[in-house]
Amino acid sequence: MEAVKPGEDVTTMTDSNGSTDRDFFRIDDEVRLNWIRVDPDAVRTNTDQETELMELNLYLHDLISTAFGDSAVLGEALGLLNRKIELLTNNEDSPLLNLQAVPVNLSGSGMAFASAEHLDPEEFIDITMLLQPANTIVRVQAQIVSTTTYPDADWDYWVRTKYSDRQEVVTEQIVQHVNLKQLQSLAARNEDPE
User: Fold this and answer.
1) Is the N end or the C end of the chain the one with fewer CB atoms within 10 Å?
2) Which tens digits make up the pLDDT trace of 50-95?
3) Cα–Cα dist 32/145, whole Å
4) Is 166 left (phi over 0), alpha (psi -120 to 50) or beta?
C-alpha cells in the first residue's frame, strides 16, 4: 500500500493489486488535535448524553456550514460560539484544551498526521480534533496503518490511519469538513484569476 505523504493531493489510494481502499476526497490541512493509545478490546459505549452531543454537533456543523455559504462572518461567529461553549463545559484536564496544530491529510475514511512519537501498525488510537472554521470538535477511533519518517525537520513521523467501523456520525462530520474546505479552496481560486 502506498503511503500518503504531506502535500500530496490524493483522492483515492490503491494497493499493489490496484484495488481502492479510499472512496472519499482528501485534503491537506492543519488541524488542532491530540491522540491517545487505546485498547481496541476495551468495551466503550457512548452514554446517551455523548450520543446526543455528537448528533447535535453534526446538526450544528450542517447549520454553520450553511451559514458560511451565506456569510463567512456569521459562519465564523457561530463556530467560535460553539467552541466557546465546549471550552466552558469541559474540565481543566480535558484533552479538548490541549490540542496542538498538526499538518494532516484528511478524508472520511482515514487520515495521516505529523507526530513527534512513533506509532506501530495495528495500534489503535483515539483522536480528538478541532475542525475549523466551524470550530467543531470530533473524536474518532483509528487504527495505525503505517508510520514513516516525516520529510522535513518540523516533525519526526508521518502516521497514516484508517478509522474504525461504526462511527458514521463522526466520519460524516469529517466528510462535511473536507467538503467545506474544498468549496473554500475553489472559491479562493475563482477569486484569484492569475
Assistant:
1) C
2) 666 667 766 776 777 777 677 777 877 777 777 677 666 654 444 4
3) 21
4) left
3-state secondary structure of 126: strand
Phi-psi region at 95: left, alpha or beta (left = phi > 0; alpha = psi -120 to 50): alpha
CA-based torsion, 111, 112, 117, 121: positive or negative: positive
Separation between Cα atoms, residue 123 and residue 57, nearest integer Å? 28
3-class SS at 44?
coil
What's the pTM value of the predicted model, to 2 decimals?
0.65
Backbone angles phi, psi at 108, to 5 degrees: -80, -5
DSSP for 110-123, written as a single string = EEEEEESS---TT-
HSE, side-chain direction, 13 A CA sphere, residue 3: 17
> What whole-number distance in Å separates Cα of residue 68 and Cα of residue 75?
4
Peptide bond preceding 133 in cis form (omega within 30 of 0):
yes
Q: Helices 72-88 & 48-70, crossing angle to 10 degrees?
A: 160
Type of residue found at 13: M
| All cell numbers assigned to 185 | 479552496
